[in-house]
Amino acid sequence: ETGVTQTPRHLVMGMTNKKSLKCEQHLGHNAMYWYKQSAKKPLELMFVYSLEERVENNSVPSRFSPECPNSSHLFLHLHTLQPEDSALYLCASSLHPKTGGLLKWGNTIYFGEGSWLTVV
Amino acid sequence: KQEVTQIPAALSVPEGENLVLNCSFTDSAIYNLQWFRQDPGKGLTSLLLIQSSQREQTSGRLNASLDKSSGRSTLYIAASQPGDSATYLCAVMGSQGNLIFGKGTKLSVKP
User: Which of B35, B44, B48 is the mutation pick for testing A, counting most A CBs within 10 A?
Assistant: First the structure.
């Protein structure tokens, strides 16, 4: 148990469906991330929210839409996905590197268990 | 563009052996390097974090080293156990604060 909770753990959706993945952390972290893990490929960073503001969008298709209503919650809204979007989606959290006024990238990042997505 | 490579892709050893997993990265301008463990169908668990100014970190039977100038890190596992079987991922943190991962080394420790 890392303190980062993802729901649902498994999701099967059709290409015309709209669904959402949810991530929640109560570690006092203020940066949250979405990663995609596909077979035979390295983990790919999708989005970064820092202090509730999106700071990175790694050329992710618009059919993926993130939302960060507060520092403890992160959503990934999914619509009109393709079969190649089937993957394990991992949420993570950490302390923002500028927490406390110091630029410090050395904070450990904590991952959730992931949401297995299958697009049919 | 930073690239992280892990060798070997898979490794099978008998219980009790000491082993070394390798990680290399192309851009030495990193803030830190982390080693993670991933069990099948699960998320990632952080094992060790080495700051760019450090040379190594130890936790129990695990020891990770970092040679930033040559772009290399090793994860040493002493006296391996079947419970160590998992995929081990290396990741470097770049100037934007994002982690760049390798593809991992799948370790199997046979009883």
Answer: B44
A90: which chain B residues are within 8 Å (Cβ-Cβ)? 43-44
Evaluate whether B47 touches B36 at the Cβ level (below 8 Å).
Answer: yes
pLDDT by residue, tens only, chain B of 111 residues: 899 999 999 999 999 999 999 999 999 988 889 999 999 888 899 999 998 889 999 999 999 999 999 999 999 999 999 999 999 999 998 766 678 899 999 999 999
A48/B45 Cβ within 8 A: no
Structure token pair of residue A39: 């077979």
Task: Give the contacts of B62 (CB within 8 A, at least 6 positions apart).
Answer: B35, B47, B48, B75, B76, B77, B78
The pair of three-digit structure tokens given for residue A73, joined into one six-digit string: 């919650």
d(CA B53, CA A62): 39
pLDDT, tens digit (0-9, with 9 covering 90-100), for A22-81? 999 989 888 899 999 998 788 998 998 887 777 777 789 999 999 999 989 999 999 999
Instruction: Name the 3-class secondary structure at B11.
Output: strand
Q: Which residues of B touch A (CB under 8 A)?
A: 4, 31-32, 34, 36, 41-46, 49, 51, 89, 91, 93, 96-104
Q: What is the spatial distance between Cα A21 and Cα B30, in angstroms, rounded to a whole number?
A: 31
